[in-house]
Design goal:
By secondary structure, this protein is of the alpha/beta class. Among the domains are: 144 residues, 3-Layer(aba) Sandwich (Rossmann fold), CATH 3.40.50; 136 residues, Argininosuccinate synthetase, chain A, domain 2 (Alpha-Beta Complex). 40% of the residues lie in helices and 19% in strands. The strands form three sheets. It has a five-stranded parallel beta sheet with strand order 3-2-1-4-5, with helices on both faces. Strands 10-9-8-13-14 form a five-stranded antiparallel beta sheet, covered by helices on one side. A four-stranded antiparallel beta sheet has the order 6-7-12-11, with no helix packed on it. β13 and β14 form a beta hairpin. The chain is elongated and about 85 Å long.
């Protein structure tokens, strides 16, 4: 093994999925540091049975095992605040992986305090964004915490070495893990991502059988489906008149969107660590929500407020992508964004059809849309002659610049 940190932790809380990587990490931590390891597994709506993670931890002799359903907190306190900003990283990515990491880090630190642990560990590699996201969260919430990142310490730097280590230490291995995996995945209630291996060449189209949350748009129903989403202060609260909790609402939108082939994205993105990577994403419910939210804001937000939100959005999205959820600047921006949502309430009607989401109606008790002013029929509230002076004043600097150029 490569050089290990000189400190000897008393207890370690490991973010544990029960898969090959974190199972090897669990055994490696126990052997390397000779201390108690506590496992924490978060249910963020990844759609997998989590009891196997408990059984795997028990097999390793773990005495304190935390498996927690965080779906409501995830959507209410992380996904919805992010969506109030209309956040899109590099114009397209709905940040499904990025937004899950601060919640995992937060709960991991809370458990560390609860059990008296002085160290936390994660299974993120030294090439990706997640190591940054986890550790920025740890340090923001517990400045003196010790962080153990095995992928930056050990010499198990290949799939073959991981499998060999697992076999040497009697770590159960799923049969499909022995072959070369076609890609890696990350899933939660907002999205599922696929990257690596067979997807590393950005010219190669992914196989259709890879997708799990959406039908092929070409095979989606031949008739559109209308869906009404009700908003209160920027957050969705009901679908087709049925009030739903945050997690239940996003689950319903996932089902509706997936059935119509909505939310697929093939993206080459810029990682925080400096390299480009290719990822495939499925975000059916989030895609519907993002478009519907823009619809209700178009009706209720003042032009200046709406344009200011659009200006700060790329910065806000970048902060989340890079792992700065707990930073002062993200919190300041969140306060500004949340203030803008005071009157973002009402209902948006969308139609879902073969991979597309189209707004076909919107209404709000706080609508700034005034038909008396915008009508093309005769009206008594707008004097069209006023536009002449408005135009001339705005044209003044253009006229002066043109005159100056002509003189030269």
């Amino acid at each position: 093994m490569s050089t290990i940190q000189s400190y000897r932790p008393k207890k370690i809380v490991l973010a544990f999925s029960g898969g090959l990587d974190t199972s090897v990490i669990l055994r490696w931590l126990q052997q390397t540091y000779g201390c108690e390891v506590i496992t924490f597994t978060a249910d963020l709506g990844q759609g997998e049975e989590l009891e196997p993670a408990r059984r795997k931890a028990e097999l390793f002799g773990v005495k304190q095992i935390f498996i927690e359903d965080l779906r409501e907190e995830f959507v209410r306190d992380f996904v919805f605040p992010m969506f109030r900003a209309n956040a899109l990283y590099e114009g397209t990515y709905l940040l499904g992986t990025s937004i899950a990491r601060p919640l995992i880090a937060k709960r991991q630190i809370e458990i560390a305090r609860q059990v008296g642990a002085d160290a936390v560990a994660h299974g993120a590699t030294g090439k990706g964004n997640d190591q940054v996201r986890f550790e920025l969260g740890y340090y923001a919430l517990q400045p003196d915490i010790q962080v153990i990142a095995p992928w930056r310490l050990w010499d198990l730097n290949s799939r073959t070495k991981l499998l060999d280590y697992a076999e040497q230490h009697q770590i159960p291995i799923a049969r499909d893990k022995r072959g070369e995996p076609p890609y890696s995945t990350d899933a939660n209630l907002l999205h599922i991502s696929y990257e690596g291996k067979a997807l590393e060449d950005p010219w190669v189209e992914p196989d259709e059988d890879m997708f799990t949350r959406s039908v092929n748009p070409a095979m989606a129903p031949d008739q559109p489906e209308a869906v009404e989403i009700e908003f209160l202060k920027g957050d969705p609260i009901a679908i087709n008149g049925e009030a739903l909790s945050p997690a239940a609402l996003l689950t319903r939108l996932n089902s509706l969107g997936g059935a119509h082939g909505i939310g697929r994205l093939d993206l080459v993105e810029n990682r925080f660590v400096g390299m480009k990577s290719r990822g495939i994403y499925e975000t059916p419910g989030g895609t519907i929500l993002s478009i519907a939210r823009r619809g209700i804001e178009s009706l209720t937000l003042d032009r200046g407020a709406a344009h200011l939100k659009d200006e700060i959005m790329p910065r806000y999205a970048e902060l989340i992508y890079n792992g700065f959820w707990f930073s002062p600047e993200r919190q300041l921006l969140q306060g500004l964004i949340d203030e803008s949502q005071e009157f973002v309430s009402g209902t948006v009607r969308v139609k879902l059809f073969k991979g597309s989401v189209r707004i076909v109606g919107r209404k709000s008790p706080y609508s700034l849309y005034n038909q008396d002013f915008v009508t093309f029929e005769a009206d008594q509230v707008y004097n069209q002659k006023d536009a002449e002076g408005f135009i001339k004043l705005n044209a003044l600097r253009l006229r002066l610049a043109s005159l100056a150029r002509k003189k030269k």
